[in-house]
Amino acid sequence: MSDSLLEIENLRVSFPTPKGRVEVVKGLSLSVGRERLGIVGESGSGKSMTGRAILRLIRKPGLLTADKMRFDGQDLLGLSERKMRHLRGARMSMIMQDPKFSLNPVMTIGHQIAEALKVHENLPRREVQARVIEMLEAVRINNPEAVAQMYPHQVSGGMGQRIMIAMMLIPRPDLLIADEPTSALDVSVQGQVLDLIDALVREKGMGLILISHDLNLVARYCDRIMVMHGGEVVETCAAQDLHKAQHPYTRGLLAAVPKMKETRSTLPVLDRSAWGGT
């Protein structure tokens, strides 16, 4: 893909154990442009580690290696930590799973969103405050001036996730990585948050990597889907062709999804022997 924002070849992430190093991402390659890529798989399949590796957030004793990691022409592996800090947030942002663990409990919401902007841009105080209010309005928060003065414990989970989205998008990045952005939310709120992310990504012409274990959800919001198992990519397909997936693991995941009008007495269990899985 010649217009790729992100290009990765042979990405590997490993951690030490008493029995030696264990790879949690095994030779992953991908290319992402200004599109919506979904990464799906069971818990422990390497999805979140892939997202963190892209931002070089794998800390020791973890080890990250790759033959190639380039973002918009820049070699991510060759950048100093100082330069990576400037890149994170400003051009690549990541929404974590649960806002309760990502927001600072002793700072107001407005202060935290403003901090995400001031780290990357030198703007007058009045303009920073205006951008904060504008961003809170963009994530559909009513009475943004009042919410900006609140603390994280004073808002609901759904609003907390909207605030995280505002914080990650206020520097206007080119690539957004959303790691299970609705896993901590009530089902009734999940669709609203994903619709919001989708609208903002389309409006700003960004690239999106949506990490989830929910295949149908990812198929609804993404252009392409990459299925991971045991740290490896087992299948990649267009989102609209997910129902045509060929790999036994993907077929097994799809079969295990309960339906609204379920007629099966039991849900099928993955037959890992079909592809030599463990």
List the helices and strands and how they pair.
Layout: E1 6-17, E2 20-32, E3 36-40, H1 47-54, E4 63-65, E5 68-71, E6 74-75, H2 81-87, E7 92-95, H3 109-118, H4 125-138, H5 144-148, H6 157-169, E8 175-179, H7 187-204, E9 207-212, H8 215-221, E10 224-229, E11 232-238, H9 248-255
Parallel strand pairs: 3-9, 3-10, 7-8, 8-9
Antiparallel strand pairs: 1-2, 1-4, 1-5, 5-6, 10-11
Helix pairs in contact: 3-4, 3-6, 4-6, 6-7
Structure description:
The structure is a single chain. With 278 residues, the chain is an alpha/beta fold. It is 32% helix and 24% strand. The protein has helices at residues 47-54, 81-87, 109-118, 125-138, 144-148, 157-169, 187-204, 215-221, 248-255; strands spanning 6-17, 20-32, 36-40, 63-65, 68-71, 74-75, 92-95, 175-179, 207-212, 224-229, 232-238. A 6-stranded mixed beta sheet has the order 7-8-9-3-10-11, with helices on both faces. Strands 1, 2, 4, 5 and 6 form a 5-stranded antiparallel beta sheet that branches. The chain starts with 5 loop residues before the first strand and ends in a 23-residue tail after the last helix. The mean pLDDT is 89.
